[in-house]
Design brief:
The protein is mainly α. Helices cover 65% and strands 1% of the residues. It comes from Glycocaulis alkaliphilus.
Amino acid sequence: MSIYTRTVIFILGVLLAALGGAMLVPAIIDLHVDAESAHAFFGSAVLCGFTGGIMTLMGRGDGFDLDARGAILVTSGSWIVLGLAAAIPLHLAGIGMSWTDAIFESVSGITTTGATVLTGLQDLPAGVLIWRAILQWIGGIGIIVTAMAIWPVLGIGGMQLFRLESSDKVDKALPRAGEIAGAVGLIYLVLSFACFIAYGFAGMNAFDAAAHAMTTVATGGFSTSDASIGGWAHEGADLVALVFMLLSALPFLVFLRAVQGRPDRIITDPQVRAFLAIAFISCAGLTLLLLANDVDTGELPAWRVAAVNAVSVMTGTGYGSADFAQWGTMPVMVFFILFFVGGCAGSSSCSIKIFRHQIAASAMLTYLHRYARPRAVRSVHYDGKPVPEATVRSVLGFVFLFFGAFAVSAVLLSLIGLDPVTALSGAATTIANVGPGLGDIIGPAGTFQPLPDAAKWVMSFTMLVGRLEVLTMLALFTPAFWRG
């Protein structure tokens, strides 16, 4: 067994064992309330812990190392293995979930998508609800560490712009990941705890506050109520969600720099400025559309309903305080566009992400300038620095593959029998890891439960592709990846 194979098995084993340990939390919560659910989580914890332990022993050795292929295999394998393992207790918990539904729900959780097949959330075992939140919280911190430590050294999707050291190499990916995980993990914990406290002041009990804090900071969107965050809007919980969704969509590298004595980066970072500008313009535009269309927003002001739902979709959180699918054609079009915006690189948010839009726009203007003035020397810039052509190609390639995967997914969903709105929005919301789609079935007021099993499998795969920056997953399906 090569050192690379050993390393992959060892890492996957450790993660699987850790997931088994996390299953003990919902098991203990349900211990004296729902015996069937508690037994499902205890049994799954033992199975995952035992299997993970065996894999860890198999991969144990004198040293560990990864090449580029190994890093991709670890990243993809982690989300696939954890997504499948996390579905076991959901299927066995006695809530009537088929294997297809359980895997869809667990993959939606670990990828922080937030699409759900469950209804009547208030009546489900508390362990199941907290497990969904834990999955999203794990997925959120996992994707931040991966985006800061693994993808930059692999140059995936232009992420090489965010290397923390110019000397980073692939064989340093794991040590760097370990260092970054500690620093980012502390910030993630502080942000989660602050969000928990804020939700408590906004009227949530400790259980609901903990669950929503985890899914807010992870920009995941799973809730403990069918009414989502709107169930506590009258006490201000939606405003708490708005603040922490915005914070969680900012680059965690900026938070690290602030702790290291560079708080100015929170203001000067080009991603942050662009992200906040787009969020403000979207919220303002939707507010005007709500007022112009005389949309009934109940007791809440139009700006508040517009802001919470716009930021929720833009960051990929997926909370809802209103059924925005009923706001009219123009607002729905705005939300569809926001599916593809995303937050900042190195955050728990999803979709294309701000920096790629910035580089793609800069590249387009640069190429137009070169055509108009062939002798002029002009390069693509980001944050005041020229961007290497290889990075530009990486970004443009990512954008092309992202929309290509979206198109293929939409076609497959149409062939399965979904109507055009459901197929298009379902493909968009899963590739962008947003959560709710559009239309009567999977819109903010609906769920993914009525969809055919074939559609759920397509969407489960699409969620993984979107969460892992497209290239990471698709590379596994190329013959060149498996050639020695």
